[in-house]
Structures are given as structure tokens and as C-alpha cells.
């Protein structure tokens, strides 16, 4: 019975919930799993056979992929993103993906868009195509679909709000409820202010291009649903500028000392602790994970966006949990397999007085720092480039419909 209990409990891992065992009841025709609370789990019943299993005990792992079917062999998709980059990837695919291509082409015939001309018509078609693809994705995932608001509006609060409301209206016309949608907005000061107004209307927002702690505090104070720090790009920036001190409280780095501090990982951990302690509505979704050890260092954060290579490494790397004699454990086993981040630990985190002040535009701009200013500018421009590369496809599709 003990082995049956282990096998069945491995099917029910969910982050940060009390552990349960499942007892199998076998008959000749079927197997039934019944949930039963237990107070004690011997070491032999622990259920983290791989590093991916371990992570999924504490965080929601979101596969990072252009199209959902690219990752299904390793991990079932839980959420999805639709953006200009995703639309471009579909349209540039030489074969297949017909269902998606038809959904994009159908946007050209949308009567609301046909009543417009010029740039307004083109923007309408792209928004409609974005929603069409998002609606398809919503049928393939149990979680929410993060939907891009035109990044060219990143510094215009009112324009972001207008386009976001239009996207949501399109979704509702297709029968997709607003609780399934996150509206994806760049982490500029203006973008965060737009998100604040949208959240006040009951519209969920997702702040991206987050590279500094002040962006997280501003977004959390605004009541956004999700913030997404990209730790990989932060780490890349510090590698590009090795003279910049990674750890102000650590040893000097200007005399040949090479710091092993990953500033992106440390930044994401502080963001999680801040949000959990002061603004628990706001969830932290960490992306840009280049190495498995970075993902493991952030176990316990709300969401981890993991690419195929790291995901494969995690799924193929065994742990010793659940594979001992049931009488002894490794030294420090309990500590090693505890989450690095948790709501309880966040309550003990310390923050400077100025970090708790309301974030004004001046505080925001001063707090971005060299890395934040550079990376935010590059990030917005990268998204703008994506949508501008997409526009010729829609112009060609419109000509083909004439």
C-alpha cells in the first residue's frame, strides 16, 4: 500500500498547499484515488523525484515557448502569451499552423476594422488577430492568456487604457471572460499608471520589462495582478559592464574580486518578499532563467517561466527525495528541500524606509538605475520592432482580400 500511496500522491502536486497522500483503491475495472490528509510523511514517501517535481511543489512552472505544442512532451502548458512576436512566428512558419493562420486572416474581415482606414485600420486588424489567437490559446490552457497591448503606446497612459479596453471588448465578443485574460503592458511609469486604472475597473494586468526594484514597488502599489522581472537580461547587463558593483553590501569588486552574486536572482527574490509582505495581490512571475540553478534558487516564487532547455534539464535531474530506505535522510535534507522563498520568510524581510514610500515619477526615474534605464529602453524598442515587422504581413493580407 505504501508504494501505491506514493505513486498516486505524485499526481497531485500543487504549489504551497498542505501535502496530501492519495490512497489507491484497486478493482478489476478501474483505479480510484481518494484524498486523505496525513500528519506525517516518512522520507520514503516524499514526492520530488526530479528537480522539476521539487520546483512544482512550491512554484507554478510556466513553459516558455512560442507555441504551446512545442513544449507539451515535457510539461503541460498552464498559461499562454499572445503578442506581435507570436503572430509573426505563426505567419513566418512555412508550413502547418493553418488553424492559427486562418484565425489571423479572419481579422481582416472583421467589420469593425473594415469601417476604419489607414493606421487605425491596421491597428484594429492586429488587435483583432491578437484576440483571435488568444481565444484559441484560452481553450488549450487552464490558466490565463497574457495579451499584448501595442508597445508603441508604452509612454501614453490614456492610449494604453483605450487599447486595453478594446482588446477586452473583443475577447468578450468571442465569449472569453475577462478573468481568463491578463493585459500585458510595458513597465514604464506611464504603463504602470494605466495598469492602476485598469485594475480599478476589475481588469487584470501584467507588467513586463521589469529590470529594477522600483518598477516592482510602483506596480505593486498600483495593485497590478502580475509583474514579470527578467533576470537573464539583468545578469547579461552586469556581464557587459563588469565594473558595476553587483552587491553593494558585499566585498569590494574593483580589485580583481569576482562576485558570484546573481543580481537578477537577488532582485527577483526582493520583489517577491516585498509583494508578499506589503501587496500580496501582486504575484511575481520570473522569466529569463538561463540555468537550472537560478530556477532552484527562486523556488517558492509565484511563477517561474522556464524555457525548453532548462525545463528538460530540471525534468531529467533526479533528487534523493523519495528514494531512501525510509529510516534515514541526508544531512540537511529537510533544509535543502524547503523552498528558498515563502510568505512566512517574506514577513521577516527588511526594507529601507525610502523603499516603502509611494513611487512618484521622479522617484521612479531616479530608482531605475543604469541597468533599469538601459534595459527598459531596449525592451520597449524590441517590442516596437516586433510589431513593425508584423505590419507588412497585414498590409499584404488586406491587399489579397480586395
From TrEMBL:
<dbReference type="InterPro" id="IPR001585">
    <property type="entry name" value="TAL/FSA"/>
</dbReference>
<dbReference type="InterPro" id="IPR013785">
    <property type="entry name" value="Aldolase_TIM"/>
</dbReference>
<dbReference type="Pfam" id="PF00923">
    <property type="entry name" value="TAL_FSA"/>
</dbReference>
<dbReference type="GO" id="GO:0005975">
    <property type="term" value="P:carbohydrate metabolic process"/>
</dbReference>
<keyword id="KW-0704">Schiff base</keyword>
<protein>
    <submittedName>
        <fullName>Aldolase</fullName>
    </submittedName>
</protein>
Amino acid at each position: 500500500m505504501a508504494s501505491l500511496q506514493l505513486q498516486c500522491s505524485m499526481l497531485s502536486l500543487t504549489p504551497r498547499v498542505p501535502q496530501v497522500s492519495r490512497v489507491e483503491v484497486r478493482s478489476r475495472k478501474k483505479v480510484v484515488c481518494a484524498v486523505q490528509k496525513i500528519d506525517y510523511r516518512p522520507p520514503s514517501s516524499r514526492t520530488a523525484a526530479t528537480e522539476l517535481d521539487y520546483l512544482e511543489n512550491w512554484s507554478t512552472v510556466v513553459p516558455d515557448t512560442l507555441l504551446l505544442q512545442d513544449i507539451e512532451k515535457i510539461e503541460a502548458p498552464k498559461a499562454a502569451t499572445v503578442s506581435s512576436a507570436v503572430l509573426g512566428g505563426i505567419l513566418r512558419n512555412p508550413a502547418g499552423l493553418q488553424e492559427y493562420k486562418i484565425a489571423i486572416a479572419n481579422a481582416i474581415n472583421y467589420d469593425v476594422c473594415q469601417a476604419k482606414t489607414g493606421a487605425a485600420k491596421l491597428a484594429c486588424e492586429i488587435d483583432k488577430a491578437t484576440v483571435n489567437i488568444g481565444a484559441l490559446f484560452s481553450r488549450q490552457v487552464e490558466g490565463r492568456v497574457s495579451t499584448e497591448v501595442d508597445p508603441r503606446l508604452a509612454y501614453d497612459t490614456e492610449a494604453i487604457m483605450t487599447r486595453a479596453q478594446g482588446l477586452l471588448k473583443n475577447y468578450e465578443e468571442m465569449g472569453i471572460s475577462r478573468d481568463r485574460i491578463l493585459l500585458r503592458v510595458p513597465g514604464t511609469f506611464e504603463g504602470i499608471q494605466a495598469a492602476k486604472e485598469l485594475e480599478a475597473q476589475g481588469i487584470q494586468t501584467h507588467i513586463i520589462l521589469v529590470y529594477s526594484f522600483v518598477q516592482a514597488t510602483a506596480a505593486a502599489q498600483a495593485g497590478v495582478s502580475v509583474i514579470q522581472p527578467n533576470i537573464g537580461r539583468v545578469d547579461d547587463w552586469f556581464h557587459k559592464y563588469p565594473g558595476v558593483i553587483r552587491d553593494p553590501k558585499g566585498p569590494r569588486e574593483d580589485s580583481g574580486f569576482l562576485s558570484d552574486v546573481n543580481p537578477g536572482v537577488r532582485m527577483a527574490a526582493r520583489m517577491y518578499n516585498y509583494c508578499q509582505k506589503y501587496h500580496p495581490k501582486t504575484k511575481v512571475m520570473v522569466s529569463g532563467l538561463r540555468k537550472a540553478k537560478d530556477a532552484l534558487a527562486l523556488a517558492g516564487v509565484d511563477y517561474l517561466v522556464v524555457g525548453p532547455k532548462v525545463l528538460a534539464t530540471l525534468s531529467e535531474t533526479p533528487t534523493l527525495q523519495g528514494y531512501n530506505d525510509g529510516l534515514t535522510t541526508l544531512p540537511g535534507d529537510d533544509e535543502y528541500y524547503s523552498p528558498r522563498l515563502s510568505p512566512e520568510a517574506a514577513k521577516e524581510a527588511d526594507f529601507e524606509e525610502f523603499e516603502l514610500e509611494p513611487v512618484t515619477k521622479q522617484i521612479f526615474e531616479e530608482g531605475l538605475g543604469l541597468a533599469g534605464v538601459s534595459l527598459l529602453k531596449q525592451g520597449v524598442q524590441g517590442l516596437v520592432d516586433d510589431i513593425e515587422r508584423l505590419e507588412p504581413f497585414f498590409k499584404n493580407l488586406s491587399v489579397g482580400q480586395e
